[in-house]
């Protein structure tokens, strides 16, 4: 019988660490564990942290200017200019054909909304602004919701609950817990409001590349998915729909990127890049 190849390897010539023992224990139990290269070095973590500072600055700059009457193309220009001034690069720009530097997703657009001159924000809109920074080869990824002026109580609640889902997911992300614990906690909270948790898209490892392991689903069961180990860097980014969790790709989008809720009810999302530590997650995009 062919033996299954191990994902985790102790460092030759060095004694087993507590981390080695924990990871190998769970791997021997048949659980999915990270490969050692997913554990970032202190130097890499500092690089990602610096990228996170710029990424946070981008979203802070958007927050200063976003308003009714502004086009999403203007938001893209703010993000581009902020990055250029700091020798950083927008990861989204030209990524698999995406034509702009930032995702701007209004109301029923779940994610990957493309900035356009004709998409002008109106009173009552809700919009997700999602930006990923590359600085000195290190990636950081975050998004925020913005309410334009005064909106409906229903939209206000959706935006609030989506943020709570991110916070609850972060609380569930413990060292030597599992990715499924995050999704379980988020889905449980959403069910209280009869909202749909989008299943077609997920969070992900990040830092040295735009998308790394693990996939971080925002629904699921405890004890499933990859083991969470100190030194891993990943995003949690729940997309919460007011109605069904199902989505479709906008047929009028020539780039094939914009994702819309199937029933065209509003959607909300918040996201952070997170470092797993010995005590829980540290936000790198505050």
Mean pLDDT: 97
What count of helical segments does DSSP give? Answer: 5
Q: What is the number of E strands?
A: 15
Shape: globular
What is the radius of gyration computed over CA atoms, rounded to a whole number of angstroms?
19 Å
Strand content: 15-25%
Largest sheet: 4 strands, antiparallel
Order of helices and strands: HHHEEEEEHHEEEEEEEEEE
**Distance N to C terminus:** 49 Å
Question: Uncertain spans, ≥5 residues at pLDDT below 50?
Answer: none
Share of helix among residues? 25-40%
The structural class is alpha+beta
Explain what the structure shows:
This protein is an alpha+beta fold. The chain is 29% helix and 23% strand. It has five helices and 15 strands. The strands form five sheets. Strands 1, 2, 4 and 5 form a four-stranded antiparallel sheet that branches. A three-stranded antiparallel sheet has the order 3-12-11, with no helix packed on it. Strands 6-10-13 form a three-stranded antiparallel sheet, with helices on one face. Helix 2 packs across helix 3 and helix 4 packs antiparallel against helix 5. The longest helix is centred in the first third of the chain and has 24 residues. The chain starts with 17 loop residues before the first helix and ends with a strand. The mean pLDDT is 97.
In short:
29% of the residues lie in helices and 23% in strands. It has 286 residues and is α+β, with helices and mostly antiparallel strands. α2 packs across α3 (72-85) and α4 packs antiparallel against α5.
């Amino acid at each position: 019988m062919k033996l299954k190849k191990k994902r985790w390897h102790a460092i030759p010539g060095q004694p087993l660490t507590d981390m080695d023992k924990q990871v190998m224990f769970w791997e021997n139990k048949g659980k999915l564990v990270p490969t050692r290269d997913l554990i970032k070095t202190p130097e890499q973590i500092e690089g990602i942290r610096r990228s996170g500072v710029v990424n946070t600055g981008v979203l802070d700059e958007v927050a200063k200017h976003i308003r009714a009457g502004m086009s999403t193309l203007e938001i893209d220009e703010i993000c581009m200019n902020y990055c250029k001034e700091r020798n950083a690069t927008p990861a989204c720009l030209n990524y698999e054909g995406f034509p702009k530097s930032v995702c701007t997703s209004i109301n029923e657009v779940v994610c990957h909304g493309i900035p356009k001159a004709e998409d002008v924000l109106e009173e009552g809109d809700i919009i997700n602004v999602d930006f990923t920074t590359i600085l000195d080869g290190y990636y950081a990824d975050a998004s925020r919701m913005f309410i334009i002026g005064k909106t409906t109580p229903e939209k206000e609640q959706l935006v609030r609950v989506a943020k709570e889902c991110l916070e609850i997911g972060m609380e569930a992300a413990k060292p030597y817990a599992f990715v499924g614990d995050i999704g379980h906690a988020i889905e449980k909270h959403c069910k209280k409001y009869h909202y749909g948790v989008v299943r077609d898209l997920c969070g992900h490892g990040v830092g040295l590349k735009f998308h790394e392991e693990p996939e971080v689903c925002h629904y699921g069961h405890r004890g499933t998915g990859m083991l969470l180990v100190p030194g891993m860097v990943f995003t949690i980014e729940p997309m919460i729909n007011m109605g069904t969790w199902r989505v479709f790709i906008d047929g009028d989008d020539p780039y094939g990127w914009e994702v819309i809720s199937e029933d065209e009810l509003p959607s909300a999302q918040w996201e952070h890049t997170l470092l797993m530590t010995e005590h829980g997650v540290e936000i790198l995009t505050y």
